[in-house]
Structure formats: structure tokens, C-alpha cells
Automatic annotation (TrEMBL), chains A, B:
CDD domains named among the record's database cross-references: GALNS_like
Domain of life: Bacteria
Cofactor entry: Ca(2+)
Family note: Belongs to the sulfatase family.
Stated name of the protein: Arylsulfatase
Pfam families from the UniProt entry: Sulfatase, Sulfatase_C
């Protein structure tokens, strides 16, 4: 009998421990890494058809994951696009809009502390949270990343052309009153005007260290590269190496950086439980006769950064998580950067905040290939003026405006209608053929406008000296 | 001793037979399949960045082979481009040029019989040679494919809009004097005005049968799809299925067709010894306000079919031969369809003809990834007027002309200079910055013109009634 009990006890122990292990495994929360490029165009990667920029690591990321061809950001310039990504909300709701379009070094405001960010939400669930790179949601001490749910920060608080160098290092930099470009570690400036040629390498090291250090816990890393925003800088290993000139060198170094991160995840066996999202914050910056070859390419899309045409707001986007996200898939589902907030919260089992309206949707089913959703889209100019709307394949422009042009906006009545799935380049206006669709989009346009009450704009206030 | 001799004899026999097997294997010539799309644009496949056309088989072909991003054809319209592909020679040398731009049903001429074609060259080496699809190098009996080295033919002798239907089946077809569209088997018309919705399926069956029938011999198959040239037709299985409208349906059926061919090669274990080349004959056909969504996309490139800008003459091109051609490779080497002639002859151990000047080069080393060649290129308008030249990354336009425009050509002195590797969309004219390069290209332009003596044009003569 003694032997019987011993055996029975051992068996029970085995069953119990296996239950515990199963529970522990099912409770193992996934990690998240968002890699955000700056001003990278829809057409600037090999896997999106660029003829001379070679991006083998991002191409492999696409082959092992899902590459999106109708993925949008919420704004056509940096600051509001980033605010929308982190909050899942349109700029017009979180206040990150205004005449100045983005935050500058002398801006008085930052992202409202009442906003829930992906970092804050995940931190509440015990995630380790880090940001490396460009913040651009406020640069006064109270608006730095650690005040929004991030445990650690390493990077520049705004765009890389907002120091003494300016946008065009090969030309004479315009004299400006900007302070020296500050490089932060957490809440402290550790250097000014850092050598930008080393930024991609230094940022990559920071991301890899963060992953290594936090491999035992669930983590969230937001890696916002300063590039290929001008001024362009590549390290010695990449400068002069691409066929596409300095712009290509910079993109190829960013591709290398992504490759390092995916390799680290594989080496640490975190690849089966980590979602990596790669995307750009808006279209390429093309200022005719100023940027020339320093600006990227929107590929088949019309127009660029600053525009409400597709080239301004549709971006390259790849989501990778071997075993979790459908591999070797090109998805033409319509999705937006604001969808990341509810999707990540859902995957991390964090309830959505119930005190603020969300503009993103949970796209988990898109990642597993179970759905091919078409979301309605709104295209805001300067983040507060509704210019266009998309419903299904149809897009109606109620106002257009050449990007970075002093010309006045041009209202259209009837609106200009395009079928984006058939005509992604917005070449063939088809409103006369489809008056009933024009009518439907007009109603949707008015319904959206009536449904969103803009808060006060935060981008325009300047620090008093 | 008896035993000793028996053993020795057996050993010798073994050695001899293994030598014979090795010889037989090394002498096994590769098969070749050229799949030529009609008016498919640079940007029309998933793997070249199209947002809504899904081409999983061509994408996989690219992943298992080499995808070219700077691959050119010799002419910006059908007939001369096809003549150049099959002969490795510029239209201005083989006579396939003229005011009419292409052959029509009432054309009096065909490809000169003095021209060596890939088919004729391979046939001399014992290859079985077949063509399925669009010929377009002469439609009088003496100019049909069997008169140029092909053993078998199944297809339409010219474009699919040269029968009674015309280019725009959804509109009223313009009345025309064309004879009924003839479908040939070898030298015989077996049907007229065949149901074009079935053409891709029927052609695919013909290609698969040809492969099965000739699996024991070396073979060459030239499969020239009539699509996505207008009028567009897809079978019931594909019509209405793509997001890109009928154009997308047609391209997706062509993609299926390619998938069937690759599958057949794998099933018959011919995939390790068969080179498959997929390309288009010229850029997409975009006639503003006429073709609209029935025309394709040149992606990031400027202009289209009929133009000497990149959109007219740079095409999607994938070369596949597992184990022979470098896999998972995106090559930005500059190559042309005229390179196929000398490359295929070399791989098939057929000497090059020594009585005619060739414009193509052997690109075998590009296929194995050992070289990344940059060829000089010439861009002819209507195949006889030299408009532009490319040398390294630089392209100089000495004349430009909007495609399909009644406007007069515009000469440029100094020529318009673009760096295609940095600026594939030909947006930023940089001649003032690089006068020495302009000078170099001007010399190359004049040297080429002086070096080629045009033969008489063959496209313009009409059959007397």
C-alpha cells in the first residue's frame, strides 16, 4: 500500500505540474517591437519594387511574415502620425495638430498626459517598455517619453534636422536659432549634436541590449529611426555602398539594423513570441528642386509627405511573428497605424481604455489571414482639415492641395472620385460614372465631420523666453 | 585465376559505365521556356510592388530565382520587341521597324528568313521547339513560326485586338476591315474569332502538353501570352476575382498559368535542368481617357508603352532554374531581352552566328550572381529614331515625345540628363551639374548612330488586294 500511495502521489504531482506548466505557457505574453522609419516612401524597399535599393532583411521579414499594400498612417507628417500610432487616435482627438504641423524645439506643449499610450497600457500589465530614437511628442522635461509609460529612453527628442545642421548638410545650412541637438538617455541630455553617422549603429546596439536585458519578461520596444529623414547620414560601412546614392545607403543601413534585431530574436529564441512591426510615419519628402535625390519614392502612388493623396499617407508595413502571423503573405487589407494600439492591447490581454474614443480597430484576424478587412479612412490635411475619405475601394477628394506648396487649397464640388484598388496612382477621375458612390461618400464625409469634435490644437504654442 | 579475371572485368565494366553515365549527364542540354506577357507594366506584379494584383506564383518564381529590376526590351511596342528578343538584334538591324510601328493583318512582310532565331539555332542542335500564343512577326503563310525554326505552333498570329472585336470590348467596337481573328495550329487556321476568355487555359494546356511530350529531349518553348493586351478576357475561374478589376483578373490568370508550368516541371523532375524566363514585351498601354483602368502600371517609372522613358522599355523579368540560377535574388544588373539569344545559345552549346551583328550579350554570369554588369543601352522611338542612351547609371534624352501623342517630338540640346539608379522616375534633370557626363553620353550617342547602318524598314508594306 505504501508503494501504491507513493506512486499515486507522484502521478498527481506530475499531472499538477504539467497543468501549471501549460498555464504558465498560455500566460506567456507576447513581446512587441515597433520599428518606425522616418519619411520612408511606399516604394523604397526591394519588396515594394524599388529598382536599386537592396533591403534583403526587410524582404526576408516580409517573406516570413505579412506585407501590407494598403496600410495607412493617420497624418501626412511626423508629429501627428506618431501621436496617432501610440494612442490609436486621430490627431484631431488627441490635440496633436495645428498650423505648425509638427513640434519644434521651441514648442511649449507635448502629448497630453491624459492620453493612454501603448507603452503605458503595456506597463500596467508588467511589460518592460523602452523607446530608442525619435520621440517628437514634446521636448520639455514633462513631455519626454518616461512621462508616458516608457521605462527607458535613448534618442533625439525631435527630427534630426532640428539642430544646427538643418535639412541639407551638403548645402549651406540655414542659420537657425535651434538649440544644439540633444541626445537623451532617459530624462538626461548626455550629448549634443551627436555624430549622426553613428546613430543607426548606436540605436541598434541600444535595441539589442534592451532585448537581451529583458528576455525573461514581456517587453515592448518602440524603435523610431531618425532616417531616411534629411539630413541623411550613414556609417562608414554603408556610405557610398548602394546604387541609390546616400538615400539608398541610409535605407540599406536601416535594413541591416532590422536584420540585427530579427537575428537577436532568433538567437534568444524569442522569435516565436515576438511581434515585430515595421512601418513608416508618412510618405517620402519630395520638395521639388530642393530635396531632389535626398527624398524617397512613393512607387506607384501619387504625391508625397504633406499630401492627402495616397503617396502622403500610405506606407510600407510588414508584420512578422513566425507561427503567429501568416508567412509569405501579401495582404491588401486596408489597415492603419492606429490599429496597432487596440491590436497590441488585445494580444497582451490589456483591456481598452473606456474613457476615450479610439480610431483604430483590432486587426488580429488580418495577421492570421482569416480576414481581409476594408476600413473606412479619413485623410486630414495639417491633421485638422478633412480633405478626403475612403470607403471600400473608393476615395473622394473634397479638397486637394499640392504638398509643400504656397498655393491655396482647391475645393472640389462634386468631389473627385477614384477607385484606389483599380487605380492606386489616382490617375482616372470617375465621379461622373458613379454619382451614387459620390453621394455615399459625401454622406460618410459629413457623418465623420459631425461625429468628431476637435479638441484645442496643441502644436502652435511657443515657449516664452 | 578465372575468378580474378571475372572480378577485374566486372570492375572495369563498372568504371566504364560510370564514366558513360557521367558523360551522358554532362551532355544533357538544358531546356528553355520563355514566357512573354503582352503590355504588362513594370509595376503590375506583387513582387514588383503592385498594391492589389496578387501574383503568388510569379512571386514564388522570383523567390526561387532572380528578379531583375533593370531589365529592358529593345523596342517600346510589340512587333519590334519580339523580333529583337528572338534574334538578339536591334530592330534597325533586322528591319522590323517602320511608320506603322507593328505588323497588322494586311502587312505584306514578315521577319526576314535570313535572320537566325533562338528556335532555329536550338533546332540545329536537336532541340524540340514550340511556340504557343502571339507571333506578330508576319501573318502571310511564308512568315508563320514554322518557317523560323519552330516545330509546332498554336496561337494567334498577331495582337488580340486585330480581329473584329477591337481593343475595347466594353465600348462599341470600331468597325474595321480586319479579317476574322485566326487561331492557328502549325500552318493551318483551325478556328476564327476564338472565345478569348478561354485562351489562357487553352494556351496553358498546349504548353503543358508540349513539356510532357518532349520531356526526354532538350526543348525550347516560347509562350507568348496575348494578355494583358486589350481587349481583356479572363476565364470564369478568374473573372471578377481580383481587386484590380478585369485587368487584375487577367494578370492573375496569367500568374496561375505560370504556376501550372513550374508545377509541371517539378512533377516531371525537369526543374533542375530547365531555364524559365518570364518578361513583358514593353511597358503598359496607357492612353489617357481611352484605356483608363484597362491599362497597367509602370510602378515608379515614368511613362508607358510607346515611350522612350523608362516606363516604356523597362519590364518585369524573372529568371528561374533551381540550382542553376541564383535563388532569392533581386538583381539590379542592367540586361536586355536581346541578351537571351546569346545566353541561351551558349548554355545550349550552339555557336553564335558569325554573319550577323548581335546587340545582346551573354548574361550567364548575371544568373549565377557572379557579375553585376551594366550594359550601355539605346532607346529608339518607332524603332528607328534614336531618342536616348544609357551609360552606367546615366541616361540622356536627346529627343522626347509623349507616348501616343499627336504632338511633335521635342529635341533637347543640351540633352536632358538623369541618374536612373538614384532617380528611376526620371524626375530630376541634372545636366547642369554634370556637363562632362553629358559630353560623354553625346559621344556614345553619336558613336552608336555612326556604327549602325539601318536596313530597309519592313513594317510599312501592305498586301495588294
Amino acid at each position: 500500500m505504501n508503494h501504491f500511495y507513493k506512486t499515486a502521489w507522484l502521478i498527481s504531482l506530475l499531472i499538477l505540474s504539467s497543468i501549471c506548466i501549460a498555464r504558465a505557457q498560455s500566460a506567456k505574453l507576447p513581446n512587441f517591437i515597433i520599428i518606425l522609419a522616418d519619411d520612408l516612401g511606399y516604394g523604397d524597399l526591394s519588396c515594394y519594387g524599388h529598382p536599386t535599393i537592396r533591403t534583403p532583411h526587410l524582404d526576408r521579414m516580409a517573406a516570413e511574415g505579412t506585407r501590407f499594400t494598403q496600410f495607412y498612417v493617420a497624418a501626412n507628417v511626423c508629429t501627428p502620425s506618431r501621436a496617432a500610432l501610440l494612442t490609436g487616435r486621430l490627431p484631431i482627438r488627441n490635440g496633436i495638430f495645428g498650423k505648425r504641423a509638427v513640434f519644434f524645439p521651441n514648442s511649449a506643449n507635448g502629448l497630453p498626459h491624459s492620453e493612454m499610450t501603448i507603452a503605458k497600457a503595456l506597463k500596467s500589465k508588467g511589460y518592460r517598455t523602452g523607446i530608442v530614437g525619435k520621440w517628437h511628442l514634446g521636448s520639455k522635461p514633462e513631455f519626454l517619453p518616461l512621462q508616458y509609460g516608457f521605462d527607458s529612453y535613448f534618442g533625439l527628442p525631435y527630427s534630426n534636422d532640428m539642430g544646427k545642421v538643418g535639412s541639407f548638410p551638403t548645402q549651406t545650412a540655414p542659420p537657425n536659432n535651434n538649440p544644439l541637438l540633444p541626445l537623451y538617455r532617459d530624462n538626461t541630455v548626455i550629448e549634443t549634436e551627436p555624430d549622426q553617422r553613428l546613430l543607426t549603429k548606436r540605436y541598434t546596439d541600444e535595441v539589442l541590449n534592451f532585448i537581451s536585458k529583458n528576455q525573461g519578461k514581456p517587453f515592448f520596444m518602440y524603435y523610431a529611426s531618425p532616417f531616411p529623414h534629411v539630413p541623411l547620414y550613414a556609417s562608414d560601412d554603408f556610405r557610398g555602398k548602394s546604387k541609390r546614392g546616400l538615400y539608398g545607403d541610409v535605407v540599406e543601413e536601416l535594413d541591416w539594423s532590422v536584420g540585427q534585431i530579427l537575428k537577436k530574436l532568433k538567437d534568444l529564441k524569442l522569435d516565436k513570441n515576438t511581434y515585430v512591426v515595421f512601418l513608416s510615419d508618412n510618405g517620402p519628402w519630395l520638395i521639388k528642386n530642393r530635396l531632389e535625390e535626398n527624398g524617397g519614392s512613393a512607387g506607384p502612388l501619387f504625391e508625397a509627405k504633406g499630401s492627402t493623396y495616397e503617396g502622403g499617407m500610405r506606407v510600407p508595413a510588414i508584420i512578422w511573428a513566425p507561427g503567429l502571423v501568416k508567412a509569405n503573405t501579401v495582404s491588401s487589407a486596408v489597415a492603419t497605424s492606429m490599429d496597432l494600439f487596440p491590436t497590441i492591447l488585445n494580444l497582451a490581454k490589456v483591456p481598452l481604455p473606456n474613457d476615450q474614443a479610439l480610431d483604430g480597430q483590432n486587426i488580429k484576424d488580418l495577421l492570421t489571414g482569416q480576414k481581409d478587412k476594408v476600413t473606412d479612412l479619413v485623410y486630414y490635411y495639417d491633421s485638422d482639415r478633412l480633405y478626403a475619405i475612403r470607403k471600400g475601394p473608393w476615395k473622394a477628394h473634397f479638397t486637394t492641395h499640392p504638398s509643400y506648396s504656397p498655393e491655396a487649397p482647391v475645393p472640389h464640388d462634386p468631389a473627385w472620385l477614384y477607385n484606389l484598388e483599380v487605380d492606386p496612382g489616382e490617375r482616372y477621375e470617375v465621379g461622373r460614372k458613379h454619382p451614387e458612390i459620390l453621394e455615399e461618400l459625401k454622406k460618410a464625409f459629413e457623418k465623420h465631420r459631425a461625429g468628431v469634435v476637435p479638441v484645442a490644437p496643441l502644436l502652435d504654442a511657443i515657449v516664452e523666453k
